[in-house]
Amino acid sequence: MEDYTREAGVRQLRQKLAALYRDTAVRKLKGADAASMDIDHVRKVLGPAKYRRQDALEAMAPGVVHGLAVGPEGGALMVLEVAKLPGKGELRLTGRLGDVMREAAHVARARARLDSGAWGIDSEVWDKTDLHIHAPEAAVPKEGPSAGVASYLAMASCMRGIPIRSDLAFTGEVSLRGAVLPVGGIRAKTLAAERAGLREVVLPDGNRADVPEGLRIGVRFVSTVAEAAEVGFEGGGG
Questions:
Q1: Among candidates 75, 115, 76, 80, which has minimal Cα distance to 101?
Q2: Less Cβ crowding at N or C end of the chain, within 10 Å?
Q3: Ranges in the chain, pLDDT < 50
């Protein structure tokens, strides 16, 4: 039923099951064989699938990171892409990103610039480089500060030319001092990561108590962007 409901609870699932039960009851009253129901009949009753399965990317180019988002329909994998272009140090964002998420991206860029000396990148390079952040699947609105860590790592990956691990997803707000702050929707986000086939999620240390029991993927906790980068670049450049 994951093609028809994505919420963290079961209200929509119950509605869909109720529709299938009603169809079964009507078919029995009409004398039809209602003992089984194949996928084609499910689609006939429920209509076209509302959601497309979101699988994690198997290979990551520099500048691409798995983030996690949550909305009225539950958690979702959110891929962030960053490209660098010759320019004047401007930041462009596309993909139906809300105002708070745009602010988070600007904070992440400022922090990435502060850290770039440790990566061997001259700070003046930022004044000659435009960054374009894009979140594909623009039909889905995205809002909130929780893409801060993913934005930071996508920019760091792009500027360094080193890919982030493809089996991870990140969530967390970033402060200008480089702290990773707790965010909401952890249950929905971790379940989305599990559904997407990821191996681990990287969460703010302040969200330790919010991780759901029975999660079948690994969880790492970080308190700074430096720690998040250490995990994200693990085996790929430190």
A1: 80
A2: C
A3: 138-139, 237
- 1 lies in the same domain as 78: no
Give 38-95 pLDDT, tens digit per residue: 777 777 776 666 555 556 777 789 999 999 988 766 788 889 999 999 999 999 999 8
Rounded CA separation 193/199 (Å)? 8
Residue 141: its pLDDT value, please? 60
Range of the structural domain that residue 181 is part of? 64-232
Which of these is catalytic: 142, 151, 157, 189? 189
Decide if 44 is catalytic: no
List the structure tokens of 97.
């990103």
pTM for the structure as a whole: 0.79
Count up the domains in the chain and report the number.
2
Active-site pick, 116, 146, 151, 157: 146
CA atoms within 13 A on the CB side of 233: 21
Same-domain status, 39 and 98 = no
Q: Quick check: is 216 in a domain?
A: yes
Instruction: Please report whether residue 237 resides in a domain.
Output: no
